[in-house]
């Protein structure tokens, strides 16, 4: 129905993106609110429930029918049971968010993982549209991957699949927050690029500026940028060997560099292919709206299952 | 039905394992025949079709009803279209085996990939029985992986998923047959263990004897064996980060070493876990009969789809 919408929330460490999305994937209404996690997890849960109810009211007032609700959160999420198992930056521990938000709104509900839901949106509605096997790799503070086949994303047995940022590409390399050394994330995340540049240049610059400096001939920036691209090519090659996707979608902060990332990354990846089939390589199309669209998609899926 | 069976063939470079398997997964009749690939791919196809027909006749003569047929082959297999795309050791190039064997027998047919089908059998009937998310890793001449979720195995977009043997665990390490350097397979396959021992000891020994020599204190064998185990732990850790399985099943020639492999491998893997959830670690249970049981399972699945 054109007037049916789902209520969608993407809960991050800083902000909560909210939307009413119709069944064609169009955002009919959008809002942003602070998460303020320092208030503690109970307060954040209350905010999520209140915002969901407000959005449903907004829908009703504007002639839209809220038919389902989807919430995505970071950390470890058990999609099957609808529980936010653990999230450092929001403070959740075993919060049954799906049940809570479904009860509050009285409609079918879904809980998802922010990266996997964003990947689902990129695969179904964004850069991966039209492909059946898509690997979506957001490269920001961390690096993760969502493996989407036929519009479904893999969660793994414990909701922890797709940790592409923590495959070791440089044995004995720089320490990673996870406790290992030489993880892809420790060399090639946007945060790692900025940190590695700061260490060597004794100057601060975000990953986008490091890319620009590298393009303008700065040797330190060029070294940091190309080390990141080489590591990404090595990590993505492992992704190709294991997942064999048709399309590879690169997003997150590092992809803001655009062709300065995609062109050399595509070349580095092609240079490494042996038996691997070359996937189509794209920059993510949905930007930081992917998560909330993913929340809408899992809500829509929950509604479809209910109606089936 | 107790008297319904499927015709199952596992075609390898050396031999063809054949079986009649009932719906409970019991082998009611088994045969082995030479592949003789030097005769050329057309002759091998004729042998496969003739053997399938003979097996169906054998079933009929012994009061069994052949309801479907499943064939698994090595190389690159497009399960969706039923085509053996490429197989070096059998000589196939774009052979529509599913259609050929289905027509010959007049029953539903399935074509599968030997490693993925063997992994499916281990997950459903073997060591992974009772687990929903299973990663099956045969370690023989090469190393591969079958990722099985809810009894279905992932093929990838081009039938090339699961190439765990070709993730680079030792950058700049020994050359691999695939053209890269430092692939897991180049350090830790049964063939690599034998080759690396021969290079250093100037003496020939299979991987199982290298394991025995390592256990008895031979320093060269111990070095080769532990390098293989360390590389396996590194490669499997990447598998855990990306797939997040509940159960990890290790098979193939190297697993013949039993606890001499599983005990140190489990320790090495546990020592590397950080955020990863520890999976149950098992030795494969079906031995070299996994492939033909997998052929039976995909035949049974094809029959179930036909009857649905």
TrEMBL record, chains A, B:
Pfam families: ROK
Protein name, per record: Sugar kinase
Keywords: Kinase, Transferase
Family: Belongs to the ROK (NagC/XylR) family.
Kinase recorded as keyword: yes
GO molecular function, one term: kinase activity
InterPro entries listed in its UniProt record: ATPase_NBD, ROK
Gene3D superfamilies noted in UniProt: 3.30.420.40
